[in-house]
């Protein structure tokens, strides 16, 4: 079993499409290179922002194979696992290991909201099925399942369960996790609008959304907080906040793809049921992005 270095910035990568809905791998490689040039520390494929819900399993593995080729060992590449059944989840984990993923981000069971015992059993079955390091995604706001400290105590009996994507939106949880587990559980802040605070409170890193469009600014904030230069970090963060708020909306995919397309790091196209932005909504979001670009800080 490999131990992953869970520190730093892990973009939840967009999945760029052509206008006809096919994967746009060329654009993906443009974005990957921009992320690596900015100094990010790992990539997560086919998450919620990567439109996992509209990708086939084979497409997820196509993204993995392509990304591994582009990255060529420069940073770890994680694949998101989001399944309805334990059987499918175990098969997916085994295939991810065979096809070269460096780790997994794992969501609780989809569609059925398990109780604590069922959710723990689900994660443990996945952990026991492959040697891949696991990032547990704790997001009760969007996925209705809260993974408690007592549940993590059980999960950490599995050596492959190493980290949490902390998306409870409750900043005190970072301190509770740290007090309870010390360094046994690595913590990645998972909410863009509190990512500076998460790092300042001692999170090991972040899983970001707007980093897809603004990798350099995201890295600068992370780096400055780590160096203790909070004033400088805050200056960039205050500029960034209207953009970061695009991440906590049901249409985060459309919004972040629009932002990334404005800086030539994605196409704006999504797959149905997501539709193209129109009318006042499109104007409002475009204005937020254009205003930010007009006042973009000199790093």
Automatic annotation (TrEMBL):
Q: Pfam family of this protein, just one?
A: DHDPS
Keyword list, A-Z: Lyase
Identify the domain of life: Bacteria
Work out whether the entry's keyword set contains Lyase.
Answer: yes
Which InterPro entries does its entry note?
Aldolase_TIM, DapA-like
Coiled-coil intervals: none
The entry assigns this protein to a family as follows: Belongs to the DapA family.
- The protein here is known as Dihydrodipicolinate synthase family protein
